[in-house]
Amino acid sequence: MIKLVESMVGDHPARPVLVGSNDPEAGGLAKAAALGVPVMAVDHRPFKGDRPAFEAVLQARLEEAAPDVICLAGFMRVLTEGFVRRWEGRMLNIHPSLLPKYKGLHTHARALEAGETEAGCSVHLVTPALDDGPILGQAVVPILEGDTPDTLAARVLVQEHRLYPAVLERFVRGNLTPLQLS
What we know:
GO terms for molecular function: phosphoribosylglycinamide formyltransferase activity. The chain has helices spanning 27-34, 51-65, 81-86, 107-113, 149-172, and strands at residues 19-21, 39-41, 70-72, 91-95, 118-125, 135-142, 179-181. The protein is α/β, with parallel strands linked by helices.
């Protein structure tokens, strides 16, 4: 749930207190543990669609870690309004499109099908509406002739790894001005 970004070293004002996932097999858990960062996995599957029960366990684990900010990355679960409201103004997400375009899934395929000339990624504050919070930063990636969803996704991912730490640094310093990377 909270993702360790490898470039968070040196004078970056944020430090990971917990790396979590709803997938116990997520690769980021092993990476974080190897770096000495506490990890947690709250597998959503045993809850069989009972989102409030899943979120109650998630909330308890987060409260134990007491993060100032939650950074979602690849967390593919829709959170309820009640959960989001508890962390309002302190939860960020990265999304693989230039929001407000292509909210939800299959963003790269949808951008290609629409004939877009550029794609990218966005970091935004999380609100109860899916991929709809205020945008804190974006990085633009040109769509190249012959691109597939996979080739485009690979190039966007490189920009995600640049954008998220930069936006997080600005956010924890109180700067909410949207950042534009190219």
